[in-house]
Structures are given as C-alpha cells and as structure tokens.
Amino acid sequence: PPVQVSKICCIGAGYVGGPTCAVIAFKCPHISVTIVDLNQARIDAWNSSDFKLPIYEPGLVDVVKHARGRNLFFSTDVDKAIQEADLIFVSVNTPTKKSGVGAGFAADLNYVELATRRIAAVAHSSKIVVEKSTVPCRTAESMRTILEANSRPGCRFDILSNPEFLAEGTAIEDLLAPDRVLIGSLQTPDGLNACESLANVYANWVPKERVLTVGLWSSELSKLAANAMLAQRISSINALSAICEATGANIDEVAHAIGFDSRIGPKFLRASVGFGGSCFQKDILNLVYLSESLHLPQVAAYWRQVVEMNEYQKSRFSKTVVDTLFNTITGKHIAVLGFAFKADTGDTRESPAISLVRDFLSERAYVTIYDPQVEEAQIWLDLSEACPLVPLETIKKQVTIASSALDACKNMEAVVIATEWKEFREINWDSVYKNMNKPAFVFDGRMLVDADALRAIGFKVKVIGRGE
Ligand code: NAD
Ligand code: UGA
C-alpha cells in the first residue's frame, strides 16, 4: 500500500525548495517538513528572528511565520533530515555546465548526484526520492542506479519526478492554487504506490483533477517542454516587436488581437527587452543538448533559435539606445530602472538588465542603476561576472547605484526601463524631466509608460514594439 507520509526532507533551500516545502508545511500541519542546505548563511536567513528571508517573494514571510517551529524547520544537518524522512525532495540547482562535455548547453547534474549519493550513504530505511529540480529526460534512471548500487540491505528507494512550475514573484499564489501538479513514476505497482503517497500530500489542498500522474520520462520532459513553449511565445512576440518598430504597427495591439483567438490565448504575450530568469535559457539549452545527443539536429536548431532571438532582442534594444542618442553614448549618463529579471523578485539571474548595462559600459557610458529589491552587492557581482576583463574598481567608476528612481534619473541624458516594477508606473515624470539633461530620452523596454503623456512633457520616447 502507499506509504502515509509524515516526515518530509527537502534538500536545497533555494527559490524552489524554500517556498514549495514551506507551503507544504503550511497546508499539512500533520507532516513535519525539514528543509536542509549546505549553505549556512542561507539557512540562518531562513531561521532569522526578524524574518529577513534569503529570497524575496510576496506572501512568503506570512507562510513561514505560520509554520516555522511548528512543523517547518530549516537546518544544515542534511544527514539527520534524510534519515528521519519518508519522502525526500531533491531541489538543488542544475545550472548550465560551464566546462567539459556539453559545456554551454548541458545541465550540470553534479549537485543532483551529490545529493543522491548522500541519501544512499546515510539512509537506514526506505525512502521515496522525488526529483524537484529541473533535469534532463531520464535523470531518474541515473538516480535509481546510484541509490540501488549504494543502499544498505532492506532499504528500498522509489524515484518520482515532480517538477515545479511556480514563477518567481507569484510563487506563493502559484503554489497555493497551481494550474496542475505533475507526478511521474514508474508504472510498476511500487512506482504507482509511491506516486499515490505524494499525490496524497498535495490532496491536502490541490483539487484531485489538477494532480496529473504520468510516466517518469514524460514528467521530466514536460518540465523542459513547458519552459521551452513559454519562452518560445516571448521570442515570437519579440520577433514581431521588431517588425512593429519598422512598420509603425503596435505590438500591444497585435498581441491583443491575436490573443483573442482562444487557441492562442492572451497570456504571456508581453513584448519586452528579452526574457531573463534562471531557467528559460538554461532549460532550452538543455533541450537543445538533449536533441543533439539523440541525433535530432533539426529539432535542436529549432529550439536554439528561441534563445538566439532573445539575444537579438537584448542587443537590438541596446543598439536602439545608442542609435537614438546620436550614435554615441560615450561619456553620456544613462539611468537604468530595474535590475531584477522581472518585477516582484530580487533575483537577477540572466536578467536582461545585466546585458544592457554591460553594453552601455562597453560604449563607455556612465550608468546609474535603481532597483527596489536587488541588493547592491548582487549588482556588483553580476556586473563583474558580465565584464570579466574589467576590474571592479573600473566598473565602479562608471556605475552608480541609486536609492530611488527619481535620484537615479537626476542629470541623466536618458532613462531606460528594464524591469516592470509597479512603482515605475507611478513615477512623477514632470519632476524627472526637470532634473534631466536635454534633450531627455526615455527608452521603455517593458511597455510601461504612457508615451504620449511623456512626449507632452517634452521627452523623446521609444517604446519596445512601437513604431513612431
Ligand atoms: P537555488 O540555487 O536557489 O537553490 C538550490 C540550493 O541547493 C542552494 O541553496 C544550494 O546551496 C543547495 N544545494 C546544492 N547542492 C546541495 C547538496 N548536495 N546538499 C544540500 N544543499 C545543496 O536554485 P533554485 O532556483 O531553487 O532551483 C532549483 C531547481 O529548481 C533547479 O533545477 C531549477 O531549474 C528548478 N526550478 C527553478 C525555478 C525558479 O523559479 N527558480 C522554478 C522551477 C524549477
Ligand atoms: C518561469 C515559468 O513561468 C515557470 O512556470 C517555471 O516554473 C520557471 O520559469 C522555472 O522553471 O524556473 P520565471 O522565470 O520565474 O518562471 O518567471 P516568468 O514570469 O516566466 O518570466 C520569465 C521572463 O520572461 C522574465 O524576464 C519576464 O519579464 C519575461 N516575460 C514574461 C516577458 O518578457 N513577456 C511575457 O509576456 C512574460
């Protein structure tokens, strides 16, 4: 029969493991949930008395306040949490490999493998092991081989795939009312029992018809497929935005018109300066690598183009800024509003703002950055990584970090909107205009401003996807 899960361990206290398992604890007071990580600072922040959590996510603090100390625990004692749990989520990072075979494309599975080996090494009893991390198709098979080859007698391991579909900025909403929960298992009696054990955990708050159960490989591939299709929609709308700018069509109107077709649907059609975030690019490259390994070069080329279009969109936007500022920005002052990869998160991984600032710096412009959530230290780290040949002191001579949008725009020639923070919709553009050098330019990479109102003030305005 399926195991009645009473203790859960989650390995990895990051953007996924933290919120996901905090919500499980919140919704299942009868289950004890321990989230573990090797990173002491991260665990300390999760445990901090003033709830200064390591990630910013609307609603997360309330969930953690409710459950922490009751049935939700954060710890660096990985072994103990593994030993006590009936069910273990593996929610570690799976970044793109930087070197070796598949560098630049394949997922680095080292962290998944180390966590798996740890489970095998310390477990005294049988466990359900759940892949939460996004992994290439058939990773569960490697995990099973490692677990079976290293387990103690009497220990059984059942592997499930349970990919996570939350988006940052809306993680808590997404977790409380998911479109679907996907569970993949082997279609054997043991596999199906394990699947039911996990489905019963979600049944505490997710309607039954939203819990989809499929085979292991379909589950793994569905996660890559969902991200690839979402990113493809953005690259498609961004490709059309270039046509709009060249023809005088308006991408907002085009998106609205095509989104009315119920087969296309209105969501996720916002043209932008390019998509960012830790996963879209990584997961598509992963799919490209998978396709190539399976000797499907046409399939690989098809998906690769989604990432290439995104690179093009980012560089096209930088070029518009340079072209419009009379073909040179050397020595000019540019405010960049927003550094996070999207609103309502402090996360900057693959943020298009990083590419923009890098491009502006290589043209020797001066840049002032403001973001309401991103820590200053993170900005310096990202810029150092983006400009590996430039010493940080040199970067710091060209870049200033401001503490408000208004401050950032003072004495600038141009303002670039890189993230769609709500507060940027409420900027007092009259005061911004007074304090800027003239002619004053606004480049809106997020379709956020009322271009006509700004032009009436005196600004020269360029909005992504809109011809003059
Ligand atoms: P993250 O880097 O924020 O968190 C991963 C954590 O795992 C880190 O804190 C790291 O210290 C810890 N870790 C690594 N190896 C460990 C080990 N052996 N033992 C204990 N802890 C270990 O990453 P994330 O954004 O949470 O992503 C995790 C996975 O979820 C990735 O595969 C990602 O593709 C996937 N995913 C992410 C999102 C998202 O929105 N960020 C959404 C869906 C899926
Ligand atoms: C995305 C997916 O939406 C999640 O379902 C998935 O779980 C997650 O990746 C993951 O696997 O990591 P996330 O990256 O957090 O979530 O955020 P999104 O809302 O998808 O935004 C990604 C990027 O696309 C952002 O830079 C955003 O600004 C951009 N975007 C999004 C657009 O440019 N236009 C849109 O219409 C939507």
Descriptive overview:
There is one protein chain. The protein has 468 residues and is an alpha/beta fold. It folds into 2 domains: 7-206, Rossmann fold, CATH 3.40.50.720; 307-463, NAD(P)-binding Rossmann-like Domain (Rossmann fold). It is 44% helix and 13% strand. The protein contains 18 helices and 14 strands. The strands form 3 sheets. Strands 3-2-1-4-5-6 form a 6-stranded parallel β-sheet, sandwiched between helices. α18 links the parallel β13 (441-444) and β14 (460-463). α5 runs parallel beside α6 (139-150) and α9 runs parallel beside α12 (297-324). The longest helix is centred in the middle third of the chain and has 32 residues, at 216-247. The relative contact order is 0.09. The mean pLDDT is 97. It binds nicotinamide-adenine-dinucleotide and uridine-5'-diphosphate-glucuronic acid. Nicotinamide-adenine-dinucleotide is lined by residues 11-17, 36-39, 42, 78, 91-94, 111, 114-115, 133-134, 164, 166, 168, 278-279. This is UDP-glucose 6-dehydrogenase. Pfam families: UDPG_MGDP_dh, UDPG_MGDP_dh_C, UDPG_MGDP_dh_N. It comes from Fibroporia radiculosa. One of its GO terms (biological process) is glycosaminoglycan biosynthetic process. One of its GO terms (cellular component) is nucleus.
